[in-house]
Amino acid sequence: MTINEALTVADAVRTRLERSLLAGEYPAGAQVKDSHVAEKLGVARPTARVAVQGLIADGFLERETGRSARVRRFSTQDVADIFRVRRLIEFEAVRSVCQGANTEQIRASLVRFTEVRDDQDWATAAQADMAFHTAVVAAADSPRLSRLFQTISTEIRLLMALLHPRYVRVSPLHDEHTRLLDALIAGKPDEALQLWAAHLNDAEAFLRTRMAEEPAREH
Description:
By secondary structure, the chain is mostly helical. The protein has ten helices and three strands; from the N terminus they run H-E-H-H-E-E-H-H-H-H-H-H-H.
């Protein structure tokens, strides 16, 4: 196997692992051992190690010296801080979009969201959700705002995996985003911000409750 072929396999393993993480298949704090990944996906252990290292570099996993990698954990304080930053970024983007920004990419992201069926895995729904919010921030046409959103995107995606029990079906989540887009298109910032706040507040409240219950589950 050439170096390029090995890297291609490692990239495929990394993508598969990332999707599993975003589907909630690995609980917060769960070990992700190179040997287990290699056995599960039928690849060489060095290839699995490269894939795991890539996910550590991207912030999906964490590893203490001498220990196996683990899925990142979040405290209630972490959740509160992430959503605080989300509001700063997304509320500013909403104000900008309501002033007449181009919503073509936001509309396109919702069309793709519409194609997600209730029986598809949660990772697909989470990806569609993230694509919508990313498109809203991009529509504000502020490179710095987009870069700031990018710095917390991995954390947002991991929290989305934990949000799965909040939505038994994908369609209610899609409907929430339809209402968000309608408010943006109407150019009504007050209404849009109110809906956005409710959307984020609901997710934060669910996640903070779940994080608070995590220690109890471990004992």
